[in-house]
């Protein structure tokens, strides 16, 4: 915008009014339970995963992070390398719920001694488990979402 000579004040106003894309870094707060849910369902690439995990690591907090993911789909011969790297950046999380998939099997190998690691069969089970593990003030993060045809 600045390169097109748009006034900086007007540009800032317009940027602030751009609506969020649903399921992309969408933050939902339940005012009754004070549980925060971060929905990053459509961010299914390695850079997006690492970016969100880096952000979560930097946030000072007194509440738990419950992180739910099926991993990344369609990585070809990079599936093992990418999932192992992502898993290394997840170690600081309080609770990790992995949805069984080719990628999360590698994550599980890296995180095998994490104190609160759960492996579930499908998205529905993961959502139920995450909700049951959350207490007042906690944060549930849903990173990526796969349709059922990807699970095997």
Summarize the structure.
The chain has 152 residues and is of the alpha/beta class.
Walk me through this protein's architecture.
The chain has 152 residues and is of the alpha/beta class. It is built from five helices and six strands; from the N terminus they run αββαβαβαβαβ. The mean pLDDT is 83. Strand 3, helix 3 (79-88) and strand 4 (95-99) form a beta-alpha-beta unit. The chain has a six-stranded mixed β-sheet with strand order 1-2-6-3-4-5, with helices on both faces. The termini are far apart.
Name some characteristics of this structure.
single chain, 152 residues, alpha/beta, 6-stranded mixed β-sheet, 6 strands
Topology (elements, then pairings):
Layout: H1 8-16, E1 26-29, E2 36-40, H2 46-58, E3 65-69, H3 79-88, E4 95-99, H4 102-110, E5 117-120, H5 123-133, E6 139-143
Parallel strand pairs: 2-6, 3-4, 3-6, 4-5
Antiparallel strand pairs: 1-2
Intertermini distance: 46 Å
What best-fitting shape do the alpha-carbon axes yield? globular
Radius of gyration: 17 Å
Which structural class do the helices and strands define? alpha/beta
Secondary-structure element sequence?
Answer: HEEHEHEHEHE
Nearest-integer average pLDDT: 83
Main beta-sheet strand count, sense and barrel state: 6 strands, mixed
Instruction: Please report which band the strand proportion falls in: under 5%, 5-15%, 15-25%, 25-35%, 35-45% or over 45%.
Output: 15-25%
As residue ranges, the low-confidence spans are: none
DSSP summary, beta strand count: 6
Query: Looking across the biggest beta sheet, what order are the strands in?
Result: 1-2-6-3-4-5
> How many helices does DSSP assign?
5
Oligomeric assembly? single chain
Helix content: 25-40%
